[in-house]
């Protein structure tokens, strides 16, 4: 089943896309949200649904594991003890969290997770850009979901600001 479908996403899609008849009945807010560029972009984004900020934060830990695994250097020519330690380490997952210094994939992943938890999606996206190619490839779908949320937030924020200004100008 598609995690971006269901009743909550249907409500989000319905609330983001104002129909032409609604724009005349609901006043300036709907007319602005229905403006050509915004409406088309929101329609395109709503076709698959857009994850909420909290859903992005909640879904990141398994993605983080994939990133770290994809960027871990291959260990070759290990002895039996080395293989046993590597095997044990693959079972136990320990990652630092918060604002971790450095440019290692583990540090970048920690900063992405911290940014997501604090709601700073732009910072999370910027940090993602610093990942090595293997980490980016392992998390491309997540990045697309993050970019979609950022786009919806920008579009709706701009539309709300224009609606407020239009309403203020009418009074």
Structure commentary:
The protein is an all-alpha fold. The chain is built from ten helices and no strands. It is elongated and about 80 Å long.
Short description:
This protein is 73% helix and 0% strand. The chain has helices at residues 7-16, 20-25, 28-33, 36-46, 53-71, 80-91, 105-118, 121-129, 133-138, 140-170.
Give a topology summary.
Elements: H1 7-16, H2 20-25, H3 28-33, H4 36-46, H5 53-71, H6 80-91, H7 105-118, H8 121-129, H9 133-138, H10 140-170
Give the amount of beta strand, in percent: under 5%
The mean pLDDT is 73
Instruction: Give me the oligomer status.
Output: single chain
Low-confidence stretches: 1-36
Instruction: Supply Rg.
Output: 21 Å
Inertia-based shape? elongated
Q: What structural class do helix, strand and pairing data support?
A: mainly alpha
How do the SSEs run, as a string of H and E?
A: HHHHHHHHHH
Helical residue percent band: over 70%
By DSSP, the count of extended strands is 0
